[in-house]
Write a structure and sequence with these properties.
The protein is an alpha/beta fold. The protein contains 22 helices and 21 strands. An 8-stranded mixed sheet has the order 5-6-7-4-8-9-3-10, with helices on both faces. Strands 11, 12, 13, 14, 15, 16 and 17 form a 7-stranded mixed sheet that branches. It starts with a helix and ends in an 11-residue tail after the last strand.
């Protein structure tokens, strides 16, 4: 928008509000294209309304935990300028709030729970709403009690609030009898939340929600209110199918102008994905309270440990940098994986082992050939049902259709994977490569095993427990770390490598975990099975008929016939 157009809109507002004594500075309030559109649509900033909230915090509330315990709740710069002032200061029709939904996200320990405790108490007694109902919600009782407990401690330390508010700890409630208003903490494990008439809902750590049912109930609990407010406060998660990621992406798109929603407020403090995790500048991006609350030396030590540890890095990225990750704990360092992007060369007739993971008939299936040698090479193949590929792309946020067009994934007709197509493709590959044996997950594969066996293809049923998977999983990690594997930068396999998470038993053994890996890992499972099968296979014996200087062929143990070439 041109500045001249914006100034005309501001002048128009001021002419319509001649009694407004404040001469607000438009640069302080109009920070995005959405704000410009809001101004032209009739919304306007009210410094007085925002100041009312600030005064409530600083004159009524007292910090109850941490280094500021017992002192007045003076808002930090980011709390005031980036959250409280815009969230409460923009008004619209009938002088009600512009923003009705908010997504506030930053790294842990930046004080967002304390901030929301104060916001909840404001909504309970100071927002001008009779019979107010304020709810804090979380995944479980323990999490739900955090904001509630902070609110109760604020009440007990405030001379004003301790007189007018009555906490009922056994019910996780706070009562304001004068206005018949109620504050209550809710969790996903409480049986019923129907019939609520919410003025405020504060949803804490949405990324931890086990399902979306509580969110869906509370999302519309304020429809009968004059100016309801639904606030999400959360740190980044890893489940890309969750309600939290859905809301994260939606609010990002609002910020980017892709979605036009003038009533959605967004504040996301996250470090860029390619930022150096050991750089103090990176830490400050995701931690707006860094200079007020954090010990820089301790943060540096945590960052150093995360940079050196594969298993710690994802949690550091989520909790300390507010970055969405592919899984809870990273198993493979992707810089090591990307360094193994050598081409595979001619594999015609080269000895190899296969791994086949069929997964679900409605999802992606993977077959991987593993060629051990001086450089261990991986050749993957993937299939997916043709019908619904676009739906899967939207659901998984993965470019399936692009990979299909590029030939990295083959589609089969219909809405389920056609195992006959997989069988025919494997038989074709058998003619091109010297496939000694194929490890196959026994689940949902009996018919295909029988059919392949009938075509003289060696098939071995391979378990998915620690006994079968621990050794090849460890070997796979070693090969990647040492750079002794080549995958030709296959994008589908790279995506699955990045998704791979593992389970650990008491003895410290690893195995791939589809439960912990919220995205697909079928190609990596197939490779690890093929690798495991190659590790236990007996070496081929040289035929006793071979002569010195001849080109030697080999025979498989257990096979009666040998091929000898002079």
């Amino acid at each position: 928008m041109k500045i001249a157009t914006l100034k005309r809109a501001i002048k128009k507002y001021r002419s319509e509000h001649p009694g407004d004594p404040d001469s607000w500075v438009w640069e302080d309030w109009v920070r995005s294209e959405a704000d410009e559109k809001a101004l032209l649509a009739g919304y306007y900033p009210s410094p007085q309304r925002a100041q009312h909230v600030k005064d409530f915090f600083e004159n009524t509330l007292v910090h109850s935990t941490g280094q500021f315990s017992g002192s007045p709740f003076l808002l930090l710069d980011w709390e005031w300028l980036d959250v409280i002032r815009p969230l409460f200061g923009w008004l619209g029709k009938n002088e009600t709030r512009r923003y009705r939904r908010a997504y506030i996200s930053m790294a842990k320990k930046n004080g967002k729970s304390s901030l929301m405790s104060g916001v909840g108490l404001y909504g309970l007694i100071a927002d001008g709403e009779p019979n107010s109902q304020v709810f804090s919600a979380a995944a479980d009782k323990g999490q739900a009690a955090i904001i509630y407990g902070e609110s109760v401690r604020m009440i007990t330390q405030s001379k004003t609030l301790s007189v007018i508010l009555k906490p009922i700890r056994s019910q996780k409630e706070i009562i304001h009898e004068a206005s018949e208003s109620l504050y209550k903490a809710l969790s996903a494990d409480v049986p019923t939340k129907e019939g609520l008439n919410a003025h405020y809902v504060m949803f804490d750590e949405l990324h931890a929600q086990p399902h979306r049912r509580l969110y869906d109930v509370l999302r519309f609990a304020g429809r009968a209110r004059r100016q309801p407010l639904f606030i999400i406060t959360t740190t980044a998660g890893f489940d890309r199918h969750s309600i939290c990621f859905e809301q994260y992406r939606r609010h990002q798109q609002v910020e980017e102008g892709i979605i036009d929603d003038l009533t959605a407020f967004t504040y996301i403090a996250e470090a860029p994905k390619d930022a150096d995790i050991t750089d103090p500048a990176t830490w400050r991006i995701a931690n707006p309270s860094f200079d007020d609350l954090f010990d820089e030396d301790q943060f540096a030590q945590d960052a150093k440990e995360a940079d050196e540890s594969i298993t710690l890095q994802n949690r550091f990225r989520r909790y300390c940098l507010n970055q969405w990750t592919e899984q809870d704990e990273r198993f493979i360092r992707m810089d090591k994986w990307d360094a193994c992007n050598d081409e595979l060369g001619d594999l015609t007739g080269v000895e190899c082992w296969g791994g086949l993971d069929l997964a679900s008939t409605t999802d992606i299936a993977a077959f991987v050939l593993y060629f051990p040698g001086e450089t261990n090479r991986i050749l993957p193949f993937f299939w997916i049902p043709e019908d619904g590929a676009r739906y899967r792309e939207d659901r998984d946020h993965v470019p399936y259709t692009e990979w299909i067009a590029q030939g990295f994934i083959r589609t089969t007709e219909g809405d389920v994977t056609d195992y006959d197509v997989i069988r025919e493709d494997i038989l074709t590959l058998k003619k091109q490569h010297n496939i000694r044996d194929i490890a196959i997950d026994g689940w949902n594969s009996t018919q295909l095993q029988t059919q392949l066996g009938g075509e003289n293809v060696e098939v071995t049923k391979w378990g998915q427990g620690f006994r079968s998977m621990a050794a090849p999983t460890k070997e796979a990690e070693r090969l990647i770390v040492e750079g002794n594997v080549a995958h030709a930068d296959n994008p589908v396999l790279r995506w699955m490598a990045n998704n791979l998470a593992v389970e650990t038993d008491p003895a410290g053994n690893w195995k791939p975990s589809k439960k912990k890996s919220t995205e697909k890992i079928d190609g990596m499972v197939a490779w690890i099975m093929a690798l495991g099968l190659s590790m236990i296979s007996e070496p081929k014996k040289v035929s006793k008929y071979a002569k010195k200087g001849a080109r030697l062929a080999s025979i498989d143990v257990g096979k009666a016939k040998a091929e000898v070439r002079p």
